[in-house]
Amino acid sequence: MRLYGFVFLIVSIEAKHRTKYCDVVSTDPTKHCYVKEILTSIAHSPNQLSVDRTTNTLYFSFDFGQGEYVPAILNIESKNISVLKGVKDAFAIANDPTTGEMYFGGSHGIYKYNAPNRSLQRLNINNLDIWWLFVKKRIYFIKFPSLSAFYYENKTIRSVPELKKDIVHQFVMDKEDNIFFINGTGLFGIKHDDNKPVLLRDHPRFLGIATDMNGYVHVCSEDGIFIVTKVIQKVKKVINVQGVLGITFDSANNIIYSDSHEIIRLVPMARDNYYIQHDHRYDKD
Ligand SMILES: *[C@@H]1O[C@H](CO)[C@@H](O)[C@H](O)[C@H]1NC(C)=O
Ligand SMILES: *[C@@H]1O[C@H](CO)[C@@H](O)[C@H](O)[C@H]1NC(C)=O
Ligand SMILES: *[C@@H]1O[C@H](CO)[C@@H](O)[C@H](O)[C@H]1NC(C)=O
Ligand SMILES: *[C@@H]1O[C@H](CO)[C@@H](O)[C@H](O)[C@H]1NC(C)=O
């Protein structure tokens, strides 16, 4: 009787822990299962997201009404959300990982935001319409409507030599300063100290690009999230989720992505803690 009770206790503890179903089964063997955590639901979702990893705070811009895009600040742990006033139509967002400072770019130029001080400073460059921002030692940006890449230094702007001839929708740099960019043709890589873009993959259409905490380049499309593997420079799908518009990574290197109506964090689960739901779509007949 006593033994039976003991076994029952173990079984009920087991069942209690295995209460979560796998929302997304990954092809990455070290992270087999993800649970989707909805950070916020939003009508006109952003394509550009960025995390200040020093405080684990997510920044994104959203349609505040009448087509005006304003930045929102979301504390990832508390889910507290607030709107940042003073930056209009700034839907390009980037974080400087060395200082934690955020940068916003839009039709009125580039703004630097210092979160502890809650101060906003506009960089003094006129007639600058920003499409994309990326910060690594320098402030890099893509101008609209030409979609050409520049950087800001000593109060002047210069074109990025490696990208001089390219139409660029978004770009990032990895740890070795290799450049990766997406445009209407596909995903391109440019090796450091070279300026010849190499087409890495031309399908599906890539909508967003981001580096994770280890400098690995990820791209997203309507049908999933892909990683650019270092060794062989291949582009491999790692997560099968639909309608991904933009991606970023939190301070624990978890993927955060937006689709047309939500911003979602993918939290990896230990293998023992979940059930895999059988998906009949993959059954062979
Ligand atoms: C949420 O953030 C706002 C703005 O930063 C702050 O005033 C408010 O106290 C916060 N609320 C909670 C519950 O933390
Ligand atoms: C934040 O504010 C303090 C006090 O005004 C100032 O000394 C400091 O330089 C500010 N930091 C930044 C990064 O602007
Ligand atoms: C930027 O300006 C400083 C001071 O005028 C100068 O020493 C430095 O060489 C300049 N850097 C570049 C890249 O032009
Ligand atoms: C994308 O960039 C490549 C490399 O510069 C260029 O050949 C191609 O025409 C661009 N695609 C579009 C649609 O602009």
SSE layout and pairings?
Elements: H1 2-17, E1 20-21, E2 24-25, E3 33-41, E4 49-52, E5 57-63, E6 69-75, E7 81-83, E8 92-95, E9 102-106, E10 109-114, E11 119-122, E12 130-136, E13 138-143, E14 149-153, E15 156-159, E16 170-173, E17 179-182, E18 187-190, E19 198-201, E20 206-211, E21 217-221, E22 224-229, E23 234-239, E24 246-249, E25 255-258, E26 262-269, E27 274-275
Parallel strand pairs: 1-27
Antiparallel strand pairs: 2-3, 3-26, 4-5, 5-6, 6-7, 8-9, 9-10, 10-11, 12-13, 13-14, 14-15, 16-17, 17-18, 18-19, 20-21, 21-22, 22-23, 24-25, 25-26
Residues 78, 80, 82 line the site of one 2-acetamido-2-deoxy-beta-D-glucopyranose (NAG).
Protein name: Ommochrome-binding protein
Organism: Helicoverpa armigera
InterPro entries: WD40/YVTN_repeat-like_dom_sf (IPR015943)
Report on the structure:
This is Ommochrome-binding protein. InterPro entries: WD40/YVTN_repeat-like_dom_sf. By secondary structure, this protein is mostly beta strands. The protein has a single domain, classed as YVTN repeat-like/Quinoprotein amine dehydrogenase (Methylamine Dehydrogenase, Chain H, 7 Propeller), CATH 2.130.10.10. Helix content is 6%, strand content 46%. The chain has one helix at residues 2-17, and strands at residues 20-21, 24-25, 33-41, 49-52, 57-63, 69-75, 81-83, 92-95, 102-106, 109-114, 119-122, 130-136, 138-143, 149-153, 156-159, 170-173, 179-182, 187-190, 198-201, 206-211, 217-221, 224-229, 234-239, 246-249, 255-258, 262-269, 274-275. The strands form seven sheets. The protein has a five-stranded antiparallel sheet with strand order 2-3-26-25-24, with no helix packed on it. A four-stranded antiparallel sheet has the order 4-5-6-7, with no helix packed on it. Strands 8-9-10-11 form a four-stranded antiparallel sheet, with no helix packed on it. The radius of gyration is 21 Å and the shape is globular. It starts with a helix and ends in a 10-residue tail after the last strand. Residues 1-18 and 278-285 have low confidence and may be disordered. The protein binds 2-acetamido-2-deoxy-beta-D-glucopyranose (4 copies). One 2-acetamido-2-deoxy-beta-D-glucopyranose (NAG) binds at residues 153-154.
